[in-house]
Amino acid sequence: MTGLIEGSDGVARCFWAGDRDDYRHYHDHEWGRPVADDRRLFEKICLEGFQSGLSWLTILRKRENFRAAFAGFDFDKVAGFDEKDVERLLQNPGIVRHRGKIESTINNARRAQDLVAEAGSLAAWFWAFEPRPDQRPRKLDRATLAAMPTTETSTLISKELKKRGWTFVGPTTVYAFMQAMGLVNDHIEGCHCRAAVERDRAAFRRPGPA
């Protein structure tokens, strides 16, 4: 089927998963699985921001370095970072040394605190935007995915986040985040993970306001 590849293990996966062990593991066990943990959600949206203009594989292979550099993406801790921390991080070869993205992560940590105060949790706020089934394509293949790097929902989330002072959260970045954290299931039809992710989503308890 369009958009599928068969790995060396004989398993059909989404075209982007390739045949690298780390990429396949991320595809099989993480991408699209529903997430309700605030720290993981903050990590995912920050790393999608760092990925802008780069390959996701670059970010994935630096993820442990990012976690060490940003206090495990505990946004209460990152919110306390100052200019000295920015300069320290700019000297860290294990992460993407982009001043704007580093400063954005610190800013967004503070905005995440505000969002928790507003909605009770990041999870409650983001999951409130989950698209209805009738807002999703009936059949998902590579061509369909290529035609929708943004969606009405990702544009709305981006707008709402920017209104609250978040940065590096354009509609394309937000859509990648939605895919990664399971707000949508974008495993292509025929991918061996698609049905498993649907089962996870069906069993997942959507977080509500605290």
TrEMBL record:
One of its GO terms (biological process) is base-excision repair. Gene3D superfamilies: Hypothetical protein, domain 2. Transmembrane segments: none annotated. One of its GO terms (molecular function) is metal ion binding. Pfam families: Adenine_glyco. Keywords: Metal-binding, Zinc. It comes from the Bacteria. Zn(2+) binds at C14, H27, H187, C191. SUPFAM superfamilies: DNA-glycosylase (SSF48150). PANTHER family: DNA-3-METHYLADENINE GLYCOSYLASE 1 (PTHR30037), DNA-3-METHYLADENINE GLYCOSYLASE I (PTHR30037:SF4). This is DNA-3-methyladenine glycosylase I. The lineage of its organism: Bacteria, Pseudomonadati, Pseudomonadota, Alphaproteobacteria, Hyphomicrobiales.
